[in-house]
Amino acid sequence: MSGRIESERGPLLDSRAVFAGKSGGVSWPVVELPAPEVPGPGECETFAVPKEFVPISTSTEIGPVGSARPCAGGAEAELVAWVRLTEDDLPPDALRFVFLVDALAPSCSAVLSTLAPVPTVEITVRPAAGLAAASSPWLLLRATTRQADPSGWSSEWVDTWGRDGTHLGSAQQLRVVRGG
């Protein structure tokens, strides 16, 4: 399935979705990343994203884990945080998962010292089998920049777990830092 959004200036968004059925009776071994050991969402302070910079952030609650924050000039391009939608307490379904897996600031922003737009150019989201059994609205996200170059392009990997430590899925993003 695919779709495109255009304006008078040209294409704004191209999307493609690929869906696959069950594996036809073949059972493959499951390989999952263990969840990092972190405090629960109730033990983390809330991080308010400026709505002027990211208007949709008013729909989410973010509880960072550890000291890494966007634009803090840190040593490591990684952000770890609990996230949830604020409108209700429903666990994530596939659509909520796709939205929430991209809720954190770009992990490369943890090493930046100034605020700069870092749009997603491409994102691939892969829900895991554990998503169907998720029972909490909270997701633990660990976003890590795996590679970045001097021109601003970066590759990011996001892993996601439920409160019980079940792996819920992953995402890969291609991002680019724009002038600040």
Automatic annotation (TrEMBL):
InterPro entries xref list: ACOT8-like_C, Acyl-CoA_hotdog, HotDog_dom_sf
Gene3D superfamilies in alphabetical order: Acyl-CoA thioesterase, double hotdog domain
Pfam families linked: 4HBT_3C
Domain annotation Acyl-CoA thioesterase-like C-terminal: ranges: 54-176
Highest taxon in the source lineage: Bacteria
Protein name: Acyl-CoA thioesterase-like C-terminal domain-containing protein
